[in-house]
Design brief:
Order of helices and strands: HEEEHEHHEHEHEHEH
Largest sheet: 8 strands, mixed
Helix content: 25-40%
Structural class: alpha/beta
Strand content: 15-25%
Radius of gyration: 17 Å
Amino acid sequence: MKRIFLAILFLITLIGKAQESTASKNVTTFTIEAPQLHTSKKIWIYLPENYSKETQKRYSVIYMHDAQNLFDAKTSYSGEWNVDEKLDSLKAPVIVVGIEHGNEKRIEELTPFKNEKYGGGNADNYLEFIVKTLKPHIDKNYRTKTKPKNTILFGSSLGGLFSFYGALKYPEVFGKAGVFSPSFWFSNDIYTFTEKQSKIKTKIYFLCGDKESDDMVNDLTKMKRLLDTKRCYCLHLDKIKIVKDGEHNEKLWRDNFAQALLWLGY
């Protein structure tokens, strides 16, 4: 797992292949200052097809990481998630806010705890940026539904780890999380953090492939069992899907994004 992680870490920072953009007309970008991170962030926004026509309607919001890989094959490392096309086909009344990763800062931003070998541990500042800078900007400038049940954190790999952590740390902001191939191996402190939560009401969709690593399925199962001690299983607040022959890549996440979103609801 560690070798796969390192390969993705270095390759994900490369410039995308020279080709035409595949982002739909419903996707735009802007840049915003991120004082918590002492930098600026490029943000990708997906708006539903009829957003400009339905001038009174408000929409749920999905906050996603690694925006370079969500909408556009030109900027992606090894293929995009096709988030825009999939939401268009669903006619889903949701706004997606994609946050570009920080290239060499990606590990720092997406990991809540340090790893002895890889460092990291700056996720709280990235989370503060989302909660206190980005979300207020989005809610001010777009017609959003602002309640936790309408606000989703969604990501894969380190982004999956972060989405799980962020949703648990700010349950008053994020009521749902899409947690794909989470890097729970990065630090056992994520289990300690979860165990310390008095009550967890977050709705969570877990996904992984059985060919990602030797410990991915075991890590997810361990977290699922821990969550079961924090709320009644009868509430059906989490779902775990293990994909046969699934590998740690955009194809796995792309193929399962729509199903996860439909289960989480919006």
